[in-house]
Specification:
By secondary structure, this protein is α/β, with parallel strands linked by helices. It is built from 26 helices and ten strands. The protein has four domains: 174 residues, 3-Layer(aba) Sandwich (Rossmann fold), CATH 3.40.50.300; 60 residues, Helicase, Ruva Protein, domain 3 (Orthogonal Bundle), CATH 1.10.8; 114 residues, Zinc Finger, Delta Prime, domain 3 (Up-down Bundle); 110 residues, 2-Layer Sandwich (GMP Synthetase, Chain A, domain 3). A five-stranded parallel beta sheet has the order 2-3-4-1-5. The structure holds zinc ion.
Length: 501
């Protein structure tokens, strides 16, 4: 109840206070000023982004007897006051989610011809309009076809794709976007100040990021998480499981500096704090993504390549979180990334000795010391696995469909379905593909590691995977990766081909 009241208290009472939808605000204001207001608006967008607030603002602007500057409601006249307190007789609000709108729309068709009781306009706001029944839609459509001069409709929906085209095409449509973190923070700071809440910036920032662009949820959280007029980051973190932004930055810098020990320490710190590691990975990948877009814009190819690697490794880590020891997946990711940089540098050094070494891959691909030792910390996850089998081409072929079945990353799984085991040489496994697209997909570091880990579960030993295109010479991994530029471009194409965004 209380949450609702704080949100209601800070509902925008004029256009200036409508947060974050500047493009829509401008068009609505111009329509009001010029007197060309549409009789049917459709406000579409995610929850909590201001659709209903904007609808009520329009209702006030259409009835206010003392408009400011030709568009802004005065909030002092009778009509403004009645709308603000929810008692205005010529504003009819229908919540289609609660009763699917049948009675209201029937009622509406009967009453719409009557002039407004007191004001010059009658306004209908239909919330969650996509929930209406087919009959209600048909009735509404007839009304929208020829609305009387005094009638205005504002339809609001979070799921515009569920609306019949016939309805959409009769409305002027506005897409409400998620509100930016910056705009959310500004609004929350304002409210905290007005309410006398001592709010830490980091707490407001964490809430703004958590709500994914919804102001209503953000205000609700500020109210819920404030105790004794104080809003502290620690409290927000404990309840929402969000991460300390400075830890994201620290981890990023340590990874770039290849500081394994410091990076692992951060993982342990997170774990000790009781942070939700899944949420942390989600935030960290988003953080890396934003840095990647910046590095692409500044044409920093080297950094972009490093970021692509990191994103892949952490995305794959998030799929391994449920293995009993949650921090293990993150530790492995950190080691893998620091190791990957070692490898890159050793290639760039072009020292013939180093370049011809099989691979300096770290933990994940090293031969397992003994299957018992590997299993012990992780027995729950492993106990269902069958007995380990010797790795041969035959045994691999026989188990190949099951190996593919256990892959969790959809893109990797899809590519693997196009591959066949070609050769097994000691602990090196060669998989053949018809096209370079699929073989390159496998060799992306996060993908390769995931495949190698699944194979390790089957055969109990560390396995190195090499993907190749059919009828081409076998090439060791290190040589294939010799051209970092090409590698980055391919990866960038893959990423921008639609996987990430
Ligand atoms: Zn007024």
């Amino acid at each position: 109840m209380e949450t609702f009241s704080l949100y209601r208290k800070y509902r925008p009472h004029n256009f200036d206070n409508l947060v974050g939808q500047d493009h829509i605000k401008t068009i609505l204001i111009n329509a009001l000023k010029s007197g060309h207001v549409s009789h049917a608006y459709l406000f579409a967008g995610p929850r909590g982004t201001g659709k209903t607030s904007a609808a009520r603002l329009m209702a006030k602007a259409l009835t206010c007897t003392n408009l400011q500057e030709g568009f802004d409601p005065c909030n002092e006249c009778d009509f403004c006051n009645e709308i603000n307190s929810g008692q205005f007789i010529d504003l009819i609000e229908v919540d289609a989610a609660s009763n699917r709108g049948i009675d209201e729309v029937r009622d509406l068709r009967e009453k719409i011809r009557f002039a407004p009781t007191r004001a010059k306009s009658k306004i209908y706001i239909i919330d969650e309009v996509h929930m209406m029944t087919k009959e209600a839609f048909n009735a509404l459509l007839k009304t929208l076809e020829e609305p009387p001069d005094h009638a205005y409709f504002i339809l609001a929906t979070t799921e515009v794709h569920k609306l019949p085209d016939t309805i959409v095409s009769r409305c002027q449509r506005f897409n409400f976007t998620r509100i930016s973190n910056k705009a959310l923070m500004t609004r929350l700071s304002y409210i905290a100040q007005k309410e006398g809440i001592a709010a830490e910036d980091s707490a407001l920032e964490a809430i703004s990021k958590y709500v994914d662009g919804g102001l209503r949820d953000a205000i609700g959280l500020v109210q819920q998480l404030t105790t004794d007029k104080k809003l502290k980051f620690n409290q927000v973190r404990d309840i929402l499981g969000v991460s300390d932004f400075s830890l994201l930055e620290k981890l990023y810098e340590h990874l770039l500096g290849r500081n394994v020990a410091e990076s692992i320490e951060i993982i342990h710190e997170l774990h000790a704090q009781g942070s939700d590691l899944r949420q942390f990975i989600h935030e960290f990948v988003d953080f890396l993504r934003r840095n990647m877009l910046k590095s692409v814009a500044s044409e920093d190819r080297e950094l972009t390549g490093q970021l692509l690697d990191m994103i892949e490794v952490f995305q794959s880590a998030s799929q391994k979180l449920d293995n009993g020891i949650p921090q293990l997946a993150l530790e492995m990711a950190v080691i893998e990334i620091c190791g990957a940089f070692d490898k890159k540098i050793s290639i760039e050094d072009a020292s013939p000795d180093k370049a011809s070494l099989p691979s300096t891959e770290s933990a994940p691909t090293q031969p397992a010391p003994s299957s018992k030792q590997v299993q012990s910390p992780n027995e729950k996850a492993e106990e269902k696995l069958e007995e380990k089998i010797d790795l041969t081409l035959e045994s691999l072929k026989e188990r190949w469909p099951r190996v593919v079945e256990r892959i969790k990353t959809p893109a990797l799984k899809m590519s693997l379905k196009n591959g066949v085991p070609l050769n097994v040489d000691n602990q090196q496994v060669y998989i053949a593909f018809d096209t370079a697209f699929h073989s390159e997909k496998i060799m992306e570091s996060g993908h390769r590691i995931e495949l190698e880990n699944v194979m390790k579960d089957f055969f109990g030993i560390g396995i190195k995977v090499v993907a190749k295109v059919k009828d081409l010479d076998l090439k060791p991994v290190v040589e294939e990766r010799k051209d970092p530029d090409k590698d980055d471009v391919d990866k960038a194409l893959n990423i921008f081909g639609g996987e990430l965004v």
